[in-house]
Design goal:
Protein name: FGGY-family carbohydrate kinase
Largest sheet: 7 strands, mixed
Keywords: Kinase, Transferase
Structural class: alpha/beta
GO molecular function, one term: kinase activity
Helix content: 25-40%
Pfam families: FGGY_C, FGGY_N
Radius of gyration: 23 Å
Organism: Saccharibacillus brassicae
Length: 533
């Protein structure tokens, strides 16, 4: 769109707004009818440890929301000379899981407990056994049941339990509703009904029946909706909360609030069965859209859904790029000591590309970038570790390839469960995250690890807030009975360019040798945990 067309679209409300609460940033993105970002705003924040729980203050949740919206609104004014008073649709997303519990008066009973809290092990284990369905520690139902097991005094007063995205949506619409993708990290979803699994809901209510609480699970959970449905409208109070200046008008349609995993799938066009995406950062996770549910429970695999309800196998590894970044910091120090100032882009570009010159298996080197524990490999704690034998080929190229390979080591073990044990077919994966800013290298190493073509799209850096804006656009602009897969594939991403790299046979064989060494060396990592305090 040209400047005049964008101005007219803004004034006429032919736009969509997505706001996502990430772990370090709240971001607001406004898109036009061609799905291009026309304005954005953000607010930086950090969780903090308070009374034994990782949390964000309720005041900062609201203040950060207003700050991100205000900056986006100012961006609109500065770019187009138009005061933002309405949009076509709005959607909110946030970090999945966690625990927000409210009483009948709408008061938060305990500070927001984020996904990062590893305080629910007992509850997660008991519920996994009861349901015969993997309940990770970060899931909302695990937090709720742990509060019950701990006899926390707030539990009898609970009237509503939701996620961070569900909370924001409730504040602005008065509706206790949630998108199915976000709901799937709150409580297990039944694929056929697109609702909380009724048998498991009954099991949970029976489990706590003796407690005498004045509520049942169905009473306190938000209603589940799928992508494309309208989940309410912006109330006058909600409009004033979002835009304290009073310019934003009420009555705007809101789509179901979603989790960051769902918006990541949308932003990478990864909602079609036999496809998926891999997010690479401090942690690494793969989301694979399944043709069927898994045959049995696997503690290493989370079962969630796409925003339109298809089953998704999620493999989440706690450790990925942190140790690699630490080594990069060491090389930067060395360069500075030698009198050279290397910017991050050049440093990463030069060193990562050395991995392409390496022996296929990394020359017999081994490392574990475990800054924290790793559930997939059974490590409760982590110790970053680099190991070699006298026969290893200790070169810079092999060193770099080894650290790239190990970044995907735990992910590979989890993915093997899907591809080998469950025979899950994957046609292609889309990678996104900072590692892929350096062309080719990250893609090639990930393709070798998973033996699947890896694509990186030009839009992959747009992020979850953009994906949430797309879901808002899907609600308002889709044709009757148009699927989310068709909307994304034929409208949003039809002309989007991407670079695909297929697995190289030599790299695949090299990674196979490396992962055998990785498995065998886990005892070394455990010994480091046991003996290095």
């Amino acid at each position: 769109m040209n400047q005049v067309n964008v101005q007219e679209a803004i004034a006429g409300g032919r736009t969509s707004l997505g706001i996502e609460f990430g772990s370090t940033r709240i971001k607001a993105v406004l898109i036009d009818s061609t799905f291009e970002t026309i304005a954005s705003g953000s607010y930086e924040w950090e969780n903090r440890l308070k009374d034994g729980y990782w949390t964000y203050d309720q005041s900062e949740i609201l203040g950060g929301l207003q700050a991100a919206y205000r900056e986006m609104k100012q961006d609109v004014q500065q770019r187009y000379g138009v005061k933002l008073t309405t949009v076509g649709g709005i959607g909110f997303s946030a970090m999945m899981h966690g625990y927000m519990a409210f009483d009948r008066a709408g008061e938060l009973l305990v500070p927001f407990r984020t996904w990062r809290n590893a305080t629910t092990g007992e509850a997660a284990c008991e519920l996994t056994e009861l349901f015969q369905f993997n309940i990770p520690e970060r899931w909302s139902i695990a937090h709720l049941y742990q509060a019950i097991l701990g006899g926390e005094e707030h539990v009898p007063s609970i009237d509503f339990v939701t996620t961070l995205a569900g909370y924001i949506h409730w504040l602005l619409t008065g509706e206790k509703k949630i998108g199915i993708g976000d709901a799937s990290g709150l409580f297990p979803i039944e694929e056929s009904s697109h609702a909380y699994h009724p048998a498991m809901v009954g099991q949970f209510d029976a489990l706590i029946a003796g407690k005498g609480y004045p509520w049942t699970l169905s009473h306190v959970l938000p209603q589940v909706l799928s992508a494309g449905e309208q989940a309410g409208t912006l109330t006058a109070e909600g409009a004033k909360l979002l835009d304290p200046d009073g310019d934003l008008q009420p009555g705007i349609a809101l789509c179901p609030p979603e989790g960051d995993a769902g918006t990541g799938m949308v932003a990478t066009n990864s909602v079609k069965k036999r496809t998926g995406n891999v997010s690479v950062g401090t942690s690494v996770f793969a989301m694979i859209v399944l043709e069927r549910e898994l045959s049995k429970l696997y503690p290493e695999i989370d079962m969630v859904t796409t925003p339109d309800g298809s089953p998704v196998g999620m493999v989440h590894a706690n450790n990925c790029s942190s140790d690699l970044n630490a080594w990069m910091g060491l090389f930067r120090e060395f360069a500075a000591a030698m009198g050279f100032e290397a910017d991050s882009g050049k440093l990463f570009g030069v060193l990562l590309n050395k991995a392409l010159e390496a022996d296929p298996d990394g020359g017999g080197l081994l490392s574990y970038g475990y800054l924290s524990g790793e559930n997939i490999t059974g490590l409760e704690q982590g110790r970053p570790l680099f190991v070699r034998s006298p026969e290893s080929s200790f070169t810079l190229a092999n060193f770099m390839r080894t650290h790239l390979f190990t970044a995907f080591g735990a992910l590979k073990l989890g993915m093997d469960i899907l591809t080998e044990n469950e025979q899950v077919a994957i046609d292609s994966l889309l990678g996104h995250g900072g590692l892929f800013k350096t062309p080719v290298v990250g893609q090639r190493m990930l393709a070798a690890a998973l033996n699947v073509p890896i694509s990186v799209m030009s839009t992959a850096g747009e992020g979850g807030a953009w994906g949430m804006a797309l879901l808002a656009a899907y609600m308002t602009d889709r044709e009757a009975d148009e699927s989310l897969e068709h909307f994304l594939g034929e409208k949003v991403f039809k002309d989007v360019e991407g670079e695909e790299i297929s697995p190289d046979a030599s790299d695949v064989e090299g990674f196979r040798t490396f992962i055998q060494r990785y498995r065998a060396g886990l005892a070394i990592e455990q010994a480091a945990v046991d003996h290095l305090n």
